Amino acid sequence: MSRVRLTAFAGIGVLAALQWGTLLADPPIVRLLGAVAVATLLGWALGRVGAASWRDRRLARALAVLGLLAVATIGSLLVLGFPLRALPPWGWDRLGDGLDVGLTGLGGSFDYPFHGAGEWARLLLVVPLVPLTIAAAVLTFRPGRAPGRVPIAGLLTLIVAFAIPAAARPTGLPVLWGGALLLLVATWLWGERARALPAIALVAGFGVVAIPVATSLAADDPPVDYRSWTLPGVKEGTTFDWEPQYGPIDWPRTGELLFRVQTDHPSFWRAEVLDEFYADGWRRSGAGGEPVPGEPIGYAPGVVRDLRWTQRARFDVLAIDSDLVISPGSALQVRGLDSTDRDADGTMHTDDQPITAGTSYALTAYAPDPRAPLLRSGSRRYHKPLASYTALALPDGADLESIVAPTHVNVPLWGHHRGRAEARRQLRESAYSQVARLAERLTAGKRTAYDAAVAIDNHLRTSYSYDEGPRNHRLPLRAFLFRDRFGYCQQFSGAMALMLRMVGIPARVATGFAPGTATADGRGFEVTDLDAHSWVEVYFNGIGWVPFDPTPPTTPASIEIRGAASFGIGASEFGDAGRGRADDRGAGHAAGPQVDPAGGGGGSPVPPVGLIAALSAVVLVVPPLRSLRHRRLPSAAATEREVEELRRVLRSTGWSRGRATTLLLVEGRLRGAHHGAAASYVRRFRDRLYGAKSVDRPTLADRRSARRDLASDGGLRARARLLLLMPPGAPLPCGRGRGSSA
User: Fold this and answer.
1) Residue 728: what are its φ and ψ, rounded to 5°?
2) pLDDT tens-digit map of 245-274
3) pLDDT exceeds cutoff 80 at 28
4) 3-class secondary structure, 661
């Protein structure tokens, strides 16, 4: 093995690593150089293998080469930053999820240096350095290579490793880079056979010819424009139509990661505001809402009462295609987007190019988080500029055809009495007279608008059920309140905002996303398409728009501003498990047959073969028998057992935390932690309870996969614990099993 060639290999590898580093903002230069060092050590080790003499030379060398190749590949990936748990075969599900996230983050158009949409995207951008340098080492130093021949294939592979990033992002001082590469190539080709002075002269001669030619080929309009590159297989960005339809949910909800937020605390991520109620539902007015007093400086006249209500956040978009700027509350200042425009209601959008995968931006937003006393003092009487936020357009109760030309009702603001009798008459004559009577009854005797809002919110949380398959109606919110009595976030938020306006409280519907799942480092949140949500914003004097979320939590509770239970559009954690669906999609447990391990006569111990046979019978026979017996249970009893088991498993393993946890939120947490099998199991359970269509219960294989997935992060103890919590075949009867909680 030539030490000169090994030095040249390392030199060209270093140049390639530095070039790959230029593709990233804040590049991991030490990690890139470490990957080159591993490839160089591989080359040295392969040379030592080639020089060794063993009896069974061919087999021994083949095994040694394969072992070195495996160790070097894994070592290079670890040095580059890949997580150790994702590299073994049992971690390839985690690796696949990470690759999918990274490819999504690299989708669309972006420029260099890449500012990044997460670590996986950054890793995938520079990971080609690893296979290229490993392949170059094998081609150059493999055992059995003819010692007198120059390894051209290995040299060309290294040059490709240098050329790819150099072409993608041309750096400064190209002559210096080219001269260094030329010198190292010459060293590779001639090595120890060349004399120093002639070699230097030859390299200089090549430089004299090559530099003018290369300069003349430079052009402002390159034949290949890297800015338009798109990786194969990258999905197009997800788009959302935020205007509610109030029918069964029909938009994609696959758990796809849409964006990451780096911020100190969770919030609703608002995309658009629906400020007008017209006939049968909420919509965005053509004027884009009206400005109101009390909002921050630079957004509308007024002052910020509390600087603690200013929130900073950074958004890394992975799979959204929209011109709406997502923000916690009202954005004050946006950095990273070329041109933005703000409507009067606080909705912000881009002017030129939409926000797509790979877009990153940071902002400062006004997101008030006041306490109840301040909210009460700010809602005793409202000012006239807010009148547009209590206006309604309602069809005539005697003729629903008037839905196309409804009557406009101007409800006096809370604290004002002039015109209230006329507004009440118009409400009573409209198709929403029942809704108006309910709003009046719920808010009767309330001294402040805050107390009235809490009363309506509590009524919706405690008196209605979550379901993703409501029927279509001509007046969907009226049907939700008095006929179906179930729905999802669009029904709950729409009904609350409607009743608030009917009693003179300024309200509107906000759309966007729930907070999502906290990242592993605790510095932000990951938001998927499962987190799409709508909620209510109520105006308070001197404070601005404050979010309320009337979608039911796990158990009925009073409203908590910004910490409101039931973030997300999911059902309450386990809801009303026995809601009486007419099917047999339950799960239960019946005691299996008892196996007597004794055998033979005279009380002699069971022989090992007999014991093994008995245990095999237990493992192979009992679970199917238990599964068969629990399928014969009544639907309500079977469902109750399965609900209790899922509750026990998720709480004992830490995936269900707090009273406000929903099945949808648990599913998002599991997908964010790369537990795909467990997340799919939870989703099937959620679809069975709350979906619009009938869904078969999970099979024994689904149950086994979920159990193994939940125990994958622990050792033997964790697997044994999950086996007790989630025994094969069917759930235990309610009240049994370890980890049970009330």
Assistant:
1) -60, 145
2) 888 887 667 788 899 999 988 899 999 999
3) yes
4) coil
pLDDT above 90 covers a percentage of the chain that reads 23
In eight-state DSSP terms, residue 251 is S
Helical H segments across 446-532, by residue range:
449-463, 476-479, 489-502
**What separation in angstroms does the CA of 606 have from each of 417, 597, 603, 610?**
90, 7, 9, 6
φ, ψ (nearest 5 deg) of residue 355? -80, 125
585 pLDDT tier (thresholds 50, 70, 90): very low
Average pLDDT, stretch 468-475? 88
- List, as one string, the DSSP characters of 581-595: -SS-------PPPPP
Question: Within a 13 Å sphere around the CA of 549, how many CA atoms are in the beta-carbon half?
Answer: 29
pLDDT above 90: residue 692: no
356: how many CB neighbours lie within 10 A of its CB? 18
CA atoms of 305 and 303, how far apart (whole Å) = 6
Contact 61, 23 (CB under 8 A): no
What is the rounded CA–CA span in Å between residue 90 and residue 443?
Answer: 58
Listed range (158-167, 369-378, 722-731) with the worst mean pLDDT: 722-731
Return all residues near 602 (Cβ < 8 A) that are at least 6 apart.
Answer: none
Residues 6 or more apart whose Cβ sits within 8 Å of residue 262? 313, 314, 316, 523, 524
The first and second tokens of residue 162, run together, are: 């240098």
DSSP 8-state class, residue 397: T
Backbone angles phi, psi at 364, to 5 degrees: -115, 130
Q: Are 741 and 648 in contact (CB under 8 A)?
A: yes
